[in-house]
Specification:
CATH class of one domain: Mainly Alpha
GO molecular function: electron transfer activity; heme binding; metal ion binding
Strand content: under 5%
Keywords: Heme, Iron, Metal-binding
InterPro entries: Cyt_c-like_dom, Cyt_c-like_dom_sf
Protein name: Cytochrome c
Radius of gyration: 33 Å
Number of helices: 8
Helix content: 40-55%
CATH topology of one domain: Cytochrome Bc1 Complex, Chain D, domain 2
Distance between the termini: 99 Å
Structural class: mainly alpha
C-alpha cells in the first residue's frame, strides 16, 4: 500500500513537471491577429462630405412652411432687433450659443448661409422642416439627432428674431 502511494505521488510529480516545463513567449497585454477586410466603405457624393450642413450655403432655398417670401429693409430695425434678442435669449439659448457650436448650431453668420424665409420656416415649424427640407435633415444628422424644439412663436416674434440675427 505504501508503494502504491509513493508510486502515485511520483507519477503525479512527473506529470506536473512534464506539463509545466514548456516555456511560452510572454508579452504584455494581448493581441489579436485579424485578417484584412475586403469590404470597402460606402462612398457618398463629394459635395455632401466637403461642407457640413451647418456651414453649407443654401441662400436660394426657402425651406418648407408658411413663409414663402419676405422682403427685408436695407436698414435694420433696431427696436425689432432688440425685441428679437430678448425672445432669442428667453427661448433659444438653452441650445444655441452665439460664438460656438452647442446642442444646435450658432446663429452667428446665419444670414450669410440661409435665406430669411428658410430661417423663419425653421423657427416656426422645425418638425416639418426636418421631415421635408434637405438642409434641415442634414443639420439634424450633424447635431446627433438633437431635434429643434418648436417654441410656438408667432410670425411676428420669429420676424423679430430674424432681425436680431441681422445684427450678429
Amino acid at each position: 500500500m505504501k508503494i502504491n502511494i509513493v508510486l502515485s505521488a511520483l507519477m503525479f510529480s512527473v506529470l506536473l513537471v512534464g506539463c509545466g516545463g514548456k516555456e511560452e513567449k510572454k508579452t504584455d497585454g494581448f493581441s489579436v491577429d485579424r485578417k484584412k477586410s475586403t469590404e470597402k466603405p460606402v462612398e457618398t457624393p463629394a459635395a455632401d462630405n466637403e461642407v457640413p450642413a451647418s456651414q453649407r450655403i443654401t441662400l436660394d432655398e426657402k425651406g418648407v412652411g408658411q413663409i414663402k417670401s419676405i422682403t427685408l429693409d436695407p436698414e435694420i430695425d433696431m427696436e425689432m432687433a432688440a425685441a428679437g434678442e430678448a425672445i432669442y435669449n428667453t427661448n433659444c439659448t438653452a441650445c444655441h450659443k452665439l460664438d460656438k457650436r452647442f446642442i444646435g448650431p450658432s446663429p452667428r453668420g446665419i444670414m450669410e448661409r440661409r435665406s430669411p424665409e428658410w430661417i423663419m420656416n425653421m423657427i416656426l415649424d422645425p418638425k416639418l422642416m426636418t421631415e421635408q427640407d434637405r438642409c434641415a435633415k442634414d443639420l439634424l444628422i450633424e447635431f446627433n439627432g438633437a431635434a429643434m424644439a418648436n417654441q410656438n412663436l408667432t410670425v411676428e416674434e420669429t420676424r423679430a428674431i430674424l432681425e436680431y440675427f441681422r445684427t450678429l
